[in-house]
Amino acid sequence: MPTPSDLDAITLDHLRAVPxxxxxxxxxxxxxxxxxxxxxxAPAIRAAVHxxxxxxxxxxxxxxxxxxxxxATAGFALRRYGWEVDPAWVRHVPxxxxxxxxxIRHFTSPGAAVVLPTPAYMPFAPLLRHLGREVVEVPLVRxxxxxxxxxxxxxxxxxxxxxLLVLVNPHNPTGRVYEPAELAALADLVxxxxxMVFSDEIHAPLVYAGHxxxxxxxxxxxxxxxxxxxxxxxxxxxxxxxKAAQVILADDxxxxxxxxxxxxxxxxxxxxxVLAHTAAYTHGEAWxxxxxxxxxxxxxxxxxxxxxRLPDVGYTAPEGTYLxxxxxxxxxxxxxxxxxxxxxxxxxxxxxxxxxxxAGHARLTMATPRPILQDILDRMTAALxxx
Length: 387
Ligand SMILES: Cc1ncc(COP(=O)(O)O)c(C=O)c1O
What we know:
The chain is of the alpha/beta class. It has helices at residues 4-8, 12-17, 21-24, 43-54, 63-81, 96-107, 124-130, 151-159, 180-192, 221-225, 252-261, 263-267, 271-283, 285-309, 336-344, 370-385, and strands at residues 30-31, 90-93, 113-118, 134-139, 141-143, 146-148, 164-168, 196-200, 227-231, 245-248, 323-327, 346-347, 349-350, 361-365. Pyridoxal-5'-phosphate binds next to helix 6.
């Protein structure tokens, strides 16, 4: 298991030696934009990947490998979320964006309007446009220090003909973990208009004490009947390059439609990725819990530092995910992401990439060793206070 001191000891030199996207894109800055962790992955996953290479399990996906993956995913969903999933309805996909693409292509009609609460994970809007769908941005609204869905605006979008809602829970970039009553209200609304939901639950294993992930499709029968859920080990165990993820279906009709239209998407999933996901869901929870505890310390460090040194930066510690959504509007910066890279040497994601609602904000990935996170905060403090 990684101890906090193991993770603290990972250095910038070590990270830069791996030409990952996070550490090679902006060589002059600290990488904090892409949602990757700097902690490697769980021993069980490393062993599974080594074993696949050593025993030559590099061929096409086989029925036994897929069956083990279905059982492992269903077992994890039951243990972690209390969600009873039929293993046969766990489908393999290469990644969550592929699941999204297949859902949009085959569960909405060409030219359909799709509701995207914003700020949103950056690729959704451009991918929807690429697929010939109309993007209806519906900004999340503030309820105290939390972001919540604007039910009236969502209802208006569906009433105007929208066919599908993109739900991300836990939410990227705000870190919200939606509560059962919020999800039930959404289910009611979508059901009223006969809409669909793509429920992206990629960050679900990364939830902090005091909050609990509730799978959207588990809140009621109506939700199950209008939802395609995407899950993955790629964020929580840091293996997005292995190209595997899951679609979980909870209704006969949705499952039959998926089977009829989406099998070509399934076919592009990686065998090694599926083996890695099976290992994560079966033997990876202790490592995950240690990492979540470490990340909990990181989100608190950001809160304490900002409160003491940069009180004009708006920040609510995330309830899940390792993303910090920073409100920098007090500084009047045109593109805070670019400004922080140029003036603080910290590469973050500019909020506008998450939609118009992200103007004046930036998204910071906190999944880095704490001394590096402290360096990030010190650099930002020096640059912003010198302005
Ligand atoms: C909410 C969300 N959905 C999807 C993805 C992309 O996942 P994948 O690499 O499985 O396509 C990410 C990556 O950060 C994400 O945060």
